[in-house]
């Protein structure tokens, strides 16, 4: 089977890259300090923060790793990925307001007041390592995706992708991430909604799936559908998402606690609604392309089999966009931690804002280079899903418990946090190295060990100085943000924001319509035309709403 992009596809990809470059360069001019670069000075609208959060919490990893599960086992892939729903909703309702009240720029910043300087530094370096590993998996996933439809080798696909993502992030910071994610969200949703009916039509609809592969049309098929496996995976996802620096950063970006909670809840709802839309084509792919050797290539294979030239280019762009949004958000928050928690805290406490901004951009470059090089070696860990599961199981539980529970529990002290992190990682490495201990049991044991160590009442009482600091922190966390101190977005930003969004939606709509014209009277072409019209209508609706708001 020949799977290659056509000339029209490359035109679509080129237009998309120019659109993203325009967004990055435009908002790069607005970034004057690290507060704007990393958290938008708390002025990101909560709906846009939701979209950025949603796009930042998944990537092409979904269309590679989870699509591989869908190809082999069917709808259980949806059940597994729905672990994100309670993680986002419960986490935001429980923690969102408290994170916003910290007033921090980075997720690590509060740890010095909560525990000690040592805990802050340990969490900084271990956390950076975890985020590097996690993002190597994401970049590897887009590399796999690219190799299916281009002549590029995996190594070159990863290197080129890494360079593009890094450069975009250096230019503009969190506002660029936000605008790009919003545009990419629209393109991704539209194109996946094109592929869903096309793939279902190819196999005779949902009824055809039930008739031909009934065993795959259950929610609990295969080893990943076992209750114990799912229970552990859901708990692990709950911890992983709520200690995720990108997720926490979005609470800092919005104006107040209510906006923070709404952002997290809506993110969970988006995962609930769109997960089946993303993964059902991969379920159908087991009938459309049954000869695949690598199940992780199922989504891109069915897309290039069914979508016409040009429209496949949009699909490719949207898949790349998913990873770029995710990695942009990750690079931004990792750079913020390095700049504020390493450089400023350790080397230059009096650094000027311009100096910190330079450090932020250079650290983004270094982070991007490390992730790009490391991603080349992920294949040796058994593929995207297995590598992600392994790294999460070993590291995220030990660092997640002190980070997340520290904001709600007063009693555990610095010793408890340090012992939990160090002993938990050792236990995770040892258990995952033993072939006779399966992943579920290893993760459960590690979780129990970490919780016991964290709450074990044998570390002695906090000294009075530490107790005063912790009491001050919790007093602040229990008081709502003063409404007079809630930041507001300037009219200049709003105008620039709307212009960029409108131009982006018009260009996106034109891209869909333009690529549909050579393919009209095919299902993919007709649906692409509809997607383009919807994008243009959305631009008109936004313009009308903005005009009405100005008049008020």
The low-pLDDT segments are 30-42
Order of helices and strands: HHHHHHHHHHHHHHHHHHHHHH
Distance between the termini: 59 Å
The DSSP helix count reads 22
CATH structural architecture: Up-down Bundle
Fraction in helix: over 70%
Approximate shape: globular
Question: Which class best fits the helix and strand makeup?
Answer: mainly alpha
Name of the CATH class: Mainly Alpha
The percent range for strand residues is under 5%
CATH topology: Sodium/glucose cotransporter
CATH superfamily: Sodium/glucose cotransporter
What's the count of strands?
0
Largest sheet: none
Explain briefly what this protein structure is.
Its main location: membrane. The chain is mainly alpha-helical. It contains 22 helices and no strands.
If you had to describe this structure to a student in words, what would you say it looks like?
- With 552 residues, the chain is mainly α.
- It has one domain: Sodium/glucose cotransporter.
- It is built from 22 helices and no strands.
- The chain has helices spanning 7-28, 34-39, 46-56, 60-73, 76-81, 84-102, 111-114, 117-149, 154-202, 205-212, 227-242, 245-253, 257-288, 298-306, 311-347, 353-375, 384-405, 414-433, 439-455, 464-477, 491-516, 523-551.
- The longest helix is centred in the first third of the chain and has 49 residues, at 154-202.
- The chain is globular, with a radius of gyration of 23 Å.
- The chain starts with 6 loop residues before the first helix and ends with a helix.
- One of its GO terms (molecular function) is transmembrane transporter activity.
- Pfam families: SSF (PF00474).
């Amino acid at each position: 089977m020949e799977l290659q992009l056509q000339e029209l596809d490359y035109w679509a990809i080129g237009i998309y890259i120019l659109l993203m470059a325009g967004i990055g360069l435009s908002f790069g001019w607005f970034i004057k300090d690290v507060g704007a670069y990393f958290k938008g000075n708390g002025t990101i609208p909560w709906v846009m923060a939701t979209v950025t959060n949603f796009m930042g919490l998944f990537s092409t990893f979904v269309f590679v790793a989870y699509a591989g599960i869908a190809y082999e086992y069917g709808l259980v892939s949806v059940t597994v990925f729905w672990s994100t729903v309670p993680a986002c909703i419960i986490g935001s309702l429980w923690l969102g307001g408290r994170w916003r009240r910290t007033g921090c720029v980075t997720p690590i910043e509060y740890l010095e007041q909560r525990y000690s300087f040592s805990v802050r530094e340990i969490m900084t370096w271990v956390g950076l390592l975890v985020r590097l590993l996690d993002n190597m998996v994401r970049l590897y996933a887009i590399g796999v995706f690219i190799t299916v439809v281009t002549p590029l080798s995996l190594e070159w696909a990863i290197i080129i992708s890494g360079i593009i993502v890094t450069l975009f992030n250096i230019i503009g910071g969190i506002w660029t991430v936000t605008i790009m994610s919003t545009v990419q969200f629209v393109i991704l949703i539209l194109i996946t909604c094109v592929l869903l009916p096309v793939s279902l039509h190819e196999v005779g609809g949902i009824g055809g799936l039930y008739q031909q592969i009934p065993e795959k049309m259950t929610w609990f098929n295969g080893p990943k559908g076992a209750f114990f496996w799912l229970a552990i995976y859901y708990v692990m996802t709950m911890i992983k998402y709520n200690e995720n620096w990108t997720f926490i950063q979005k609470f800092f970006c919005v104006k107040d606690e209510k906006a923070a909670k709404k952002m997290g809840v809506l993110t969970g709802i988006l995962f609930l609604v769109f997960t089946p839309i993303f993964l059902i084509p991969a379920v159908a792919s087991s009938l459309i392309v049954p000869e695949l050797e690598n199940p992780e290539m199922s989504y891109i294979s069915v897309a290039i089999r069914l979508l016409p030239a040009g429209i496949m280019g949009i699909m490719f762009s949207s898949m790349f966009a998913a990873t770029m949004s995710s990695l942009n958000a990750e690079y931004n928050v990792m750079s913020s931690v390095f700049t504020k928690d390493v450089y400023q805290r350790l080397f230059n406490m009096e650094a000027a804002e311009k100096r910190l901004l330079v450090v932020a951009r250079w650290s983004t470059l270094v982070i991007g280079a490390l992730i790009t090089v490391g991603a080349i070696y992920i294949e040796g860990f058994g593929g995207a899903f297995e590598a992600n599961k392994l790294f999460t199981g070993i590291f995220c539980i030990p660092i997640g418990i002190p980070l997340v529970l520290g904001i709600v529990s007063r009693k555990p002290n610095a010793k408890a946090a340090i012992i939990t992190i160090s002993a938990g990682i050792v236990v995770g490495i040892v258990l995952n190295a033993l072939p006779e201990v399966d992943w579920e049991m290893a993760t459960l044991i590690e979780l129990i060990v970490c919780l016991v160590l964290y709450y074990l009442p044998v570390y002695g009482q906090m000294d009075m100085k530490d107790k005063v600091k912790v009491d001050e922190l919790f007093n602040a966390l229990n008081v709502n943000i003063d409404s007079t101190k809630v930041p507001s977005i300037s009219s200049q930003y709003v105008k620039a924001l709307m212009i960029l969004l409108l131009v982006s939606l018009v260009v996106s709509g034109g891209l869909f319509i333009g690529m549909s014209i050579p393919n009209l009277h095919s299902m993919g072409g007709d649906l692409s035309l509809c997607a383009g019209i919807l994008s243009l209508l959305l631009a008109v609706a936004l313009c009308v709403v903005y005009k009405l708001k100005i008049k008020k």
